[in-house]
Amino acid sequence: MAAERILVVDDEDNARRAIVTILGEEGYEVAEASNGMDALTRLADFSPAVVLSDVRMPQMDGLTLLKKAREQGSDATFVMMTAFASVETAVEAMRAGADNYLVKPLDADAVLVILSKALEKRSLRREAESLRDQVRARTRFHNIIGDSPQLQGIYDVVRRAAATKATVLILGESGTGKELIAQALHQESPRKDKPFIRVHCAALSENLLESELFGHEKGSFTGAMARKEGRFELADGGTLFLDEIGEISPAVQVKLLRVLQQREFERVGGTQTLKVDVRIVAATHRDLTAEVKAGRFREDLFYRLNVVSVTLPPLRDRKSDIPTLVSHFLEKYSESYGKEVKALAPGTLQALLAHDWPGNVRELENAIERAVVLAQDTELTADDLPPVLRGPRPLGSTSSNLIPGASMAAIEREAILRTMEMVHGSTSRAAEILGISVRKIQYRLKEYSSGKTTHATEEHAEDAVID
């Protein structure tokens, strides 16, 4: 293993060289600089893991060096050295981003201990970042977040269907992420470098929708001041996403059926037949089978659209994905609002799991955004959530409150929920830490969200089929 690189920055030659000698004898690769300006140059070409820097130096002091280094993108760990041992100096250094500080005159053993701790902390931080990246890669598919069995099956269908020209019909309640699936189909397809055009069918009247889809000629209706290309033309070679397809009128259904059958159409008010190569992806929250039976949706159009169907499960049926989604939204809105909200306080995850989420992922995102805005600490509490989500508090805010006198089921619940919070919602990582199966964690999360009590007779329940 390569030796760790240390940069020593001090304007006192004797002190600097003494530290360089000590660290060199300990097997570190050491570079030195006599002032902050030289240190900035060495940071770029030496790329140290740790910088040992004096605080008081001419030209550029240690704290300014630290700030400049961060501006340049250096991730080196800083340990400051000062002959002025004061709380103010230490606090200022730590606020600026230093990991620790040493008081001059330096003790060699203290230097080595502090340096060892700094390197260990750096290693742990990088390992945590790597694990988070692995979790993100495993739980995200083109901005769709979750690793529940239901979503894994959908990801597989999307990958297989994307390579073809087949029309895809996406079904599911509002807020489940139908447009994200449509975008994933496009991005996984050979058409990914061509346009992805979306039309929200429910937002337009019959006449406007027809014009939007097929375009119109100048003078074809009042207000048609010039020729306009429709979405089919704009999407030529790419993908056209028809959201809320169940809302279109019978007249538009007829024209859409012709495009699907013959791949040709005319603009409104026009006579020229246009041909396009467009992949159709449609979505609706309606039960199109029931709409066909009721005579509101053409059966032949339904079968043309329903070559490959994908049904997105509501969030209440995949609650094991809630911790991962919450972690994502926490990160997103903490950055957006410039806040340092990093985790969930005890009881918050349980409150989120207990809700049925009729608005699905969209409702969950809204709840977390609201909570981040209102949060007064680095942890979200149940009090930060919308009133409808605030339920009874857990048996205790810490594990010490559960022992003695708590049941094994309560202790297990606390261990699972707190570990899920710690690993940002990764069921696989939590299972590895707790030494139990992923299926057992998924089963327990579903159980906690339903309010059931774990009994000894349920010890093998994780072998049941997970919905």
UniProtKB/TrEMBL annotation:
Residues 144-373 form the Sigma-54 factor interaction domain. Keywords: ATP-binding, DNA-binding, Nucleotide-binding, Phosphoprotein, Transcription, Transcription regulation. The modification 4-aspartylphosphate is found at residue 54. Residues 5-119 form the Response regulatory domain. It holds the Pfam family HTH_8. SMART domains: AAA (SM00382), REC (SM00448). PANTHER family: SIGMA FACTOR (PTHR32071:SF122), TRANSCRIPTIONAL REGULATORY PROTEIN (PTHR32071). This is Sigma-54 dependent transcriptional regulator. The lineage of its organism: Bacteria, Pseudomonadati, Myxococcota, Myxococcia, Myxococcales.
